[in-house]
Design brief:
Largest sheet: 8 strands, mixed
Strand order of the largest sheet: 7-8-9-10-6-2-1-11
Helix content: 25-40%
Radius of gyration: 18 Å
Length: 275
């Protein structure tokens, strides 16, 4: 691939979940219309937020417990299963369909973009891998509602445990791939707001999750601040994928569209409870 110039958007302060999803889709529209260049967005979340995959049923969620904890609920435009966004760095890669780094099948683009993720982790001292070790049948057998419990091709692991969970949406406008790197905290917290037949099932799900996933703090034995992880992602994607980044803000058109999408879609029950 030839070197390319992309836009970098670093998004502190943290946003609410529905705003984060609206911003990603607004960028996808602008990038797809060639109003903006391909973009890497790095962001975080204002309060703990449970996000569901595009086709995931809200019947997986214990809405009463979610309300008691004052955690948010949002539905992603991408697939996959539930993620609790908290104490993490989230990335979004948004590019037109003909950008070489996202061309081809979902798996081929996953593999290509994983090189940026692996380099980013190596910069903070984490030795990670992305391997095609799971087939579709094995994926289908993973019945749980939690993303980090489900194995996927070319997802990023450390010592056999998932460290970054990613998902894609492919539209006429282009490709959106976003994912999450848990920096620290208790990954099993997510089971508090999901439905299980019995308390024993919930305990088993928590144990199973911790067997299959990890945080960067657990992997390294120290907490990496968000700002340091953000810089590592910028350098990692630049070095591994031949990118030169120009740090910019959202355009006025993207801000306007994100606000519209927030009110009409991501903060609306017709979208959140569509399944």
């Amino acid at each position: 691939m030839e070197n390319a110039t992309w836009r970098l958007i670093v998004s502190p302060p943290p946003h609410h979940g529905a705003i984060n999803m609206a911003i990603d889709e607004a960028i996808l529209f602008a990038v797809g219309k060639r109003l903006m260049p391909p973009t890497l967005r790095l962001y975080s979340w204002k309060t703990p937020c449970l996000s569901l995959g595009f086709a995931q049923s809200t019947s997986d969620v214990d809405l009463k417990k979610l309300s008691e904890l004052n955690w948010e609920l949002v539905r992603r435009p991408t697939g996959g299963k539930a993620i609790l966004h908290c104490d993490e760095l989230t990335y979004a890669v948004i590019a037109p369909n003909d950008e070489p780094r996202v061309q081809g099948s979902v798996l081929s683009s996953y593999l290509r973009l994983s090189q940026g993720l692996l380099r980013s982790l190596s910069i903070v001292g984490a030795l990670a891998h992305a391997q095609e070790i799971y087939d579709d049948l094995q994926n289908a057998k993973t019945k749980g509602p939690v993303c980090f419990e489900a194995p996927s091709n070319y997802e990023i692991t450390i010592n056999g445990k998932k460290i970054i969970g990613s998902a894609q949406a492919r539209r006429n406008e282009g490709v959106l791939q976003h994912g999450t790197l848990p920096l620290f905290g208790d990954l099993a917290r997510i089971t508090k707001v999901l439905k299980y037949d019995t308390p024993a099932n919930q305990t088993e799900a928590s144990q199973r999750l911790l067997e299959h996933a990890t945080t960067l703090e657990t992997a390294l034995g120290t907490i990496i601040p968000w700002e340091q992880a953000c810089q590592a992602f910028t350098e990692g994607f630049s070095n591994a994928l031949g990118l030169y980044f120009l740090e910019e803000q959202l355009s006025s058109q993207e801000v306007a569209l994100a606000n519209e999408l927030f009110h009409s879609k991501y903060n609306h029950e017709n979208w959140t409870f569509r399944k």
